[in-house]
Write a structure and sequence with these properties.
By secondary structure, the protein is an alpha+beta fold. The protein has one domain (2-246): 2-Layer Sandwich (BirA Bifunctional Protein, domain 2), CATH 3.30.930. It has 9 helices and 7 strands. It has helices spanning 34-55, 57-71, 83-92, 100-108, 111-114, 131-142, 192-201, 210-217, 230-238; strands at residues 2-8, 21-30, 96-99, 146-152, 168-176, 180-187, 223-229. Strands 1-2-7-6-5-4-3 form a 7-stranded mixed β-sheet. β5 and β6 (180-187) form a beta hairpin. α1 (34-55) packs antiparallel against α3 (83-92). The radius of gyration is 20 Å and the shape is globular.
Length: 258
């Protein structure tokens, strides 16, 4: 099953990649584990890029020419890859898959970390990765999209299934160049007792969440899902610099015009 509709976030995030209201595609698949979930998300992203290249070639070439004219004013080593070339590159290469723990090790040993260039220091396991960390992994280290998996349970939602180590959960984020996180998802906890225990650990009100617990109480199946921010996908495909330029009526913190 899936949904596609508006989503609201109360975060006070005033960046070129955040909106207070955006559209999200959210599929949920029965009998999918985390690997199946990641496979589908990668396939889905590549399908959307393929569709755009096959059906909107003239528009992409127009956008590419405009951006290339802007890039000429930058030093050679700071220029971005041409738009259509960038989209083809993503299609032709598998996404890199690493665990959160591996990502933390890479970031901790990176030049920006050693020279204290990150605005948010990487303090080891448990660090909540920021856009600057995600973009370093994608744009500087691997130079291609990255799927990050197995995050610490303490920085993820209660409904995500725990791994056997009891410290990480079966969560994933897909990171894109110029964007950071474009997809977030997980395998869900399908065991009623484990779900109750996790909610109690976090002091969450089980009475208010009775409707959610009922979906597990009488048996469930392994299932996974993810959310794709549609405007972030548009941002990547069009090569625009600000997410407010790819939605008809941008709504941001303290601004809801139209």
């Amino acid at each position: 099953i899936y949904t596609f509709g508006p989503t609201f976030r109360a975060e006070n995030s005033n960046t070129a990649r955040h909106l207070a209201e955006f559209w999200m595609i959210e599929p949920e698949m029965a009998f999918y584990d985390l690997n199946d979930n990641a496979d589908l998300a990668e396939e889905f992203l590549k399908y959307l890029i393929t569709y755009a290249l096959e059906n909107c070639k003239a528009d992409l070439e127009f956008l590419s020419k405009r951006q290339q004219d802007e890039e000429k004013s930058k030093p050679q080593d700071q220029r971005s890859m041409e738009l259509v070339e960038k989209l083809q590159f993503v299609l032709e290469h598998d996404f890199v898959r690493i665990t959160y723990t591996e990502a933390i090790e890479i970031l901790a040993n990176s030049k920006p970390a050693k020279k204290n260039k990150f605005q948010f220091p990487v303090k080891g396991f448990g660090t909540d990765l920021q856009s600057e960390h995600e973009r370093y992994l994608v744009e500087k280290h691997f130079k291609r999209p990255v799927i990050l998996t197995d995050y610490p349970k303490d920085i993820k939602a209660f409904y995500m299934k725990q791994n056997d180590d009891s410290t990480t959960v079966r969560a994933m984020d897909i990171l894109f160049p110029g964007i950071g996180e474009i997809v977030g998802g997980s395998q869900r906890e399908d065991n009623y007792d484990k779900l109750i225990n996790r909610m109690k650990e976090l002091d969450l009100p089980t009475e208010e969440m009775w409707w959610y617990l009922e979906t597990r109480k009488f048996g469930s199946v392994p299932h996974s899902g993810f959310g794709l921010g549609f405007e972030r996908m548009m941002l990547f495909v069009t090569g625009m610099g600000n997410i407010r330029d790819v939605i008809p009526f941008p709504r941001t913190p303290k601004n809801a015009e139209f």
